[in-house]
TrEMBL record:
Its cofactor is thiamine diphosphate. Keywords: Lyase, Magnesium, Metal-binding. It comes from Azospirillum argentinense. This is Thiamine pyrophosphate enzyme N-terminal TPP-binding domain-containing protein. One of its GO terms (molecular function) is thiamine pyrophosphate binding. The lineage of its organism: Bacteria, Pseudomonadati, Pseudomonadota, Alphaproteobacteria, Rhodospirillales. Residues 24-140 form the Thiamine pyrophosphate enzyme N-terminal TPP-binding domain. It holds the Pfam family TPP_enzyme_N. SUPFAM superfamilies: DHS-like NAD/FAD-binding domain, Thiamin diphosphate-binding fold (THDP-binding).
Length: 236
């Protein structure tokens, strides 16, 4: 056997031994698909353009709009109609702010919706060093939605998506904000570990039965009413 053949065999063996890898882009897509998300309502742009392109390749339906508020409203209505959170994706800063109007409206109207926006790098924004489209989006979103999360590490993408889904549909439904800094998408980790980090939400909105005492008290009140009026609706 020649020296060249030996070297080639060694190179092949080394290549075969390398573990499969995944990245932030793929983990976001995998987490959404695992939890039954089929449609994305978006206005493409950096840093989510590559994410949307890959999502289409993975079978997700990407529906593009000309304005983020319209995309967010479509996601919110889809959430209301399907009882699963509608997902809107936007770019950072102005795109995020445009989508935030729809997020606030979804929260007020009890529509399950998730707004996912790209954002600037935390280490630059927190020191106000002038990053591109610098804005503390998480702080802005918190007062206007049920919950807001920021993901800094690829291994936390799965749990963040799961928590966002559960928060959006459980109890009184509403809007949830998920902040994904641009650097997160390029983070790489072992594919097997990445798969194990994903979380599938089981029974995201469990039925909450009132206690027998509460039911009995309500019946007593109704018995004493001359013209009882019951108002029922989402969030009641």
């Amino acid at each position: 056997m020649s020296a060249v053949t030996v070297l080639n065999n060694q190179a092949t063996a080394a290549t075969d031994a390398e573990p499969a890898l995944t990245d932030g882009f793929q983990l976001v897509i995998d987490a959404l698909k695992l939890n039954g998300i089929e449609n994305l309502y978006v206005v493409p742009g950096i840093p989510i353009s590559d994410l949307l392109r890959m999502a289409q390749g993975e079978g997700l339906r990407v529906i593009s709009f000309r304005h983020e508020q319209n995309a967010g409203n479509a996601a919110a209505i889809a959430g209301f109609l399907t009882k699963k959170p509608g997902v809107c994706m936007t770019v950072s800063a102005p795109g995020f702010l445009n989508g935030l109007t729809a997020l606030a409206n979804a929260t007020t109207n009890c529509f399950p919706m998730i707004l996912i926006s790209g954002s600037s790098e935390r280490e630059i924004v927190d020191l106000q060093q002038g990053d591109y489209e610098e804005m503390d989006q998480l702080a802005i979103a918190k007062p206007l939605c049920k919950a807001a999360f920021r993901v800094l590490h690829a291994q936390d993408i799965g749990i963040a998506v799961a928590r966002a889904i559960r928060a959006a549909v459980s109890g009184r439904p509403g809007g949830v904000y998920l902040d994904l800094p641009a650097k997160l998408f390029s983070q790489v980790m072992d594919a097997a570990e990445g798969a194990r980090s994903l979380v599938k939400v089981v029974d995201a909105a469990p039925a909450q039965l009132p206690s027998p005492d509460s039911v009995a008290r309500a019946l007593e009140v109704l018995k004493g009413a001359k013209r009882p009026l019951i108002i029922l609706g989402k969030g009641a």
